[in-house]
Amino acid sequence: MAEFSTSIKDKGNVSIIYLNGYLDAHTAPQLETNFSELIDRDKYNIVVNFTDLHYISSAGLGVFMAYIEKIRENEGDIKLSSMSDKVYNIFDLLGFPLLYEIFKSEDEAISKFKETGNVENKK
Amino acid sequence: MKPSVNSKRPETLKTKNNIDKKLKIQSRTENLSVIREFIQSAAEEVGMKPGVTEDVMLAVDEACTNIMKHAYKSYPDGEILLKLKYSDHKLTIIIVDYGNSFHPENVPDPDLQKYYRQHRVGGLGMYLMKTLMDEVSYNSVPGKYNEVYLTKYLNNSH
């Protein structure tokens, strides 16, 4: 069963990871690989788009914790966008909105990078 | 609540008052989706609201993930037995494993600021289980088996 998939698109200096399906202890390593590959390519401005994510467990939340400091040390950030209420509630229960900026839309998240000057090169 | 002649509950919504089901699976993470489907199908049988069903699915996922990672230390052929019972508007899921015993009292509530510095998380699953279920308890007989009891009362919420 194809229960989880991701795709990555670069928009200017921001990389967007699109999540689809069910993110649990079985599928979390796939997202870890995505973050590792972006870091290897020196891509530290990352937006994660949750539009098509139906489910997240703590193993999925742990992935965001594993990479955030390294990314911020490199003047980047992980910003989250387009979560369903259900998925947002899980983030909220665990206090994640204190550590991560969460936006209603992908465009808002991307524009936040521009505001804070993290996007140096205009497209 | 007593059934009423004027009850607006549609006749087509026939739900069961009692169920008793079991699922035996191996301790590999690919089975987490099987576990969630087992819970979802039972929840539909008793007419649970989707939002409550999702909470129970997540709590059971967390309990089983902990068993796979800690009780069986990612050994893929450990046995996990789920026993699901529903009666008197009370849903109980007992999850049994035969791996290393577990001391829930040693797991503190999560501290995200600390995890941020350590690049890791721990105890999030247990915290979610406590938050999403009405009752969570543990019973461990070292060297024999461990049980997690997860209970949800559906009187007010479904």
What does this structure look like?
The complex is a heterodimer of chains A (123) and B (158). With 123 residues, chain A is an alpha/beta fold. Chain A has one domain (4-104): STAS domain (Transcription Regulator spoIIAA), CATH 3.30.750.24. Helices cover 39% and strands 30% of the residues of chain A. Chain A contains four helices and five strands. In chain A, helix 2 (58-73) links the parallel strand 3 (45-56) and strand 4. The mean pLDDT of chain A is 92. Chain B is α+β, with helices and mostly antiparallel strands and 158 residues long. Chain B has four helices and five strands, in the order βααββααββ. Chain B has helices spanning 32-45, 50-71, 112-118, 124-132; strands at residues 19-26, 79-87, 90-97, 135-141, 145-153. In chain B, strands 1-2-3-5-4 form a five-stranded antiparallel sheet, covered by helices on one side. The chains are: A alpha/beta (123), B alpha+beta (158). The A-B interface holds A 1, 3, 22, 24-26, 55, 57-59, 61-62, 65-70, 86, 90, 93-96, 98-99 and B 29-30, 32-33, 36, 51, 54, 57-58, 61-62, 65, 68-69, 110, 112, 115-117, 119-121, 124-125, 127-128, 131.
Sequence of secondary-structure elements of chain A: EEHEHEHEH
**Which chains share the greatest interface?**
A-B, 26 and 27 residues
- Shape type of chain A: globular
Low-confidence stretches of chain A: none
- Determine Rg of chain B (CA atoms, Å): 17 Å
CATH architectural label of chain A: 2-Layer Sandwich
At CATH level 3, the topology of chain A is: Transcription Regulator spoIIAA
N-to-C CA distance of chain B: 12 Å
Number of strands of chain A: 5
Indicate the overall shape of chain B. globular
Oligomer: heterodimer
Q: In what range is the share of β-strand residues of chain B?
A: 25-35%
Q: Tell me about the biggest sheet of chain A?
A: 5 strands, mixed
